[in-house]
Known about the structure:
Layout: H1 16-19, H2 22-25, H3 27-44, H4 46-54, E1 56-57, E2 60-61, H5 62-76, H6 91-116, H7 121-131, H8 139-145, H9 150-178, H10 185-214, H11 216-252, H12 254-281, H13 286-297, H14 301-312, H15 317-345
Antiparallel strand pairs: 1-2
Amino acid sequence: MGDIVKTGKIEDLTETKEGLGLFEKLLPIWIVICMGSGILLSLYAPSIAETIDSWQVRGISIPIGICLFFMMYPAMLNLQASELRKLAKNPKPIILTLISNWIIAPFIGWGLARLFLPGNEQLMFAIILLASSPCTAMVLVWGYLADGNQEQNVITTSLNTVTILIGYAPMVALLSGIANISIDVISLIITVAIFIGIPLVLGILSKKLIISAKGEEWFKNKYIPIVGKISIFSLLTTLVVLFSLNGNVMITNFNLLLLVSVPILLGFIIVVGYNLLITRFTKLAYKEGVITVIIGSSSHFEIAIATAIAMYGVGSIAALGTTMGLFWEIPIMVGLVYLAKYLKKKNWWKGTTK
Length: 354
C-alpha cells in the first residue's frame, strides 16, 4: 500500500496529497463492496471462487499467491538503505516506535486474544499475526497527511522493512507457543521468506535496474503509479475471493467477525493510547511524536493475511480474521490523523523539533 506515496524519498513525499486520488480516498468503501461481493458470490455462484481456489500448487492458491505478491512488492520499494545511516541523528522517536512495534503491540494483541478468543485457535492466531506485524508502507501516507517528520517516517519504515524480515516469524512463533497454538514453524519461516523476502529482493533489484535504464523520474512518475494500482486491485481481488469462500460460514457465524473485532479495536485503542502518552512523557515535538504514534500503532496487514492463508488456507477463519484487521485499520488511521491535528492545537506534544 506504500505505492500511494509515489516513492520513499523525502523530497517526493510532497506529492502525497495529490497522489492520493479519489479511488484511494474511498478505499474503505471499496473494501466493503468487495467483501459484500464475495459473500454474494458464495451464495449465488460458489463454483467461481472454488474454481479459482482449485488452481493450487502444494496447497498454495496460485491466483491468491500472485495477488499477495503484488500487495507486498510496492511496500518494498519504499526501502531507503541510505536513510538508515541517519539513525543516530535523533534516535529517541525511532527507539520508541520499535518498542511499540515489537514489545507493546504484540503482547497486547496476545493478551487480548487470550482474553476474548479462548478456544478459537484460528482467530487467536489472526490477532497475533496482526499485532506482530509493524507497518512498512501505508504509514507514509498517514504521516504526511498528519504533517509529521517525513525523514523520520522514511527511516523508520525502512528499518521496519528489515526488522520484519528478521523478527516476524520468531515473534509469531513465540506468542503462538505461549498461547498454546500449535503451528508449523518451518512453514511460518518459509511463508515469511516467500512473501517478504522475495518481494524485498525483487523490489531492491527492480528499483536499481529501472532507475538505471529509465531514470528516477520515470520510476517515480510512471512505474510506481502503475504498480500502485495493481497493488490495490490485488488487495480487492483477494478480499473478493476470501469472502466468496467464506460467505456461508460468515452468514451462519457472523458473531465470529464481531468477536474478532473486539480485540482488534481494543488493541488499537490501547496501543494508540500508550503511544500518545509515551510521546508526551518523553517530550517529543509534534512532528516526531505523531510519526511515532502512527507507525507504532499500525500493522502490516498484507503479511498477516498472507501468513494466515499460507498456514490455514484461503477459506479459513484465520484468513477472515486478518482481513477484519484491514477493515478496521484504515478508518482508524484516518481518524488518528485528525485526532493528532486536534491534539496539536491543544499543545499535547510540548517538545522542540530537532
